[in-house]
Amino acid sequence: MSVPYNQEKIDKIKKLKKERNAIILAHNYVLGEVQDVADFVGDSLELSIKARDIDEDVIVFCGVQFMAETAKILSPEKTVLHPVKESGCPMADMATASALRKFKKDYPGAVTVCYVNSTAELKTEVDVCCTSANAADIVSLVPEDKQVLFLPDKNLGAYVAKQTGRDIVLWKGFCPTHMRLTPEDILKKKKEYPEAVTIVHPECRPEVIELSDHALSTGGMLRFAKETEEKQIIVATELGIIHRLQKENPHKLFIPISEQAVCMNMKMIELDHIINALEKNETEIVLDRETIEKARKPIVRMLEKDLSL
Residues annotated in the binding site for [4Fe-4S] cluster, as ranges? Predict the structure, then answer.
């Protein structure tokens, strides 16, 4: 019997990982076959913690550019490979360091809270990072007499403002994939599956979040799916997470809110790219020491929940 085509690739990846002393980290949105060969799959917060604590010499990061940069910032002594360098994040590109410097001049003394979905360069200009899993907690740590600037995602920022009751100045960035999801999409699925519970990512529009039962990070969605007694769950986020949800909860039905909920950048990395990365060291994330030192501070403040500025 011939060996399945993908099995040959999987075996090769295992061999190369061992030779390079490498670990594969993957985000919940990447292709299912990539999730399956990864050593660890998680959301941005989980991946940040994992990247900080690994023992392996090489990190192959399967996600978008800012995630691989974050891994390098947290483990600068490691070789960090991003298999497809073109796999970027449109939201991250909506905020630049130079634009933020100008913006902050209008808000002297404000605390800048930056979604980890941002470039390494931008992180050098902010006070503290957050993820969708901990954004409300991080903002709550900011002294109440301080103005909060939140960037780059206006939807997550608006959600956090509502959760915390804080008056937050919002950057105008957004995730194109989540912005495509509409209230009509949710209402349609609710009508088709009246018994289903609805979970959404807080990068969605406020009016979409309003129609949901729970707003959760991808890690939160996975925990909810395991713990709930609900058997039908409408999922309003990027479609890649359905693979893991179904894999971990085979007796439950997960209904994607829309077939349009696809981030093509997250889907760029395939098994061949991982093999190429391990064989040819492509594409290595290179950041200068000053950028790493400056960008590391807001990430560490997030992980340690320490806003001693």
Answer: 89, 175, 263
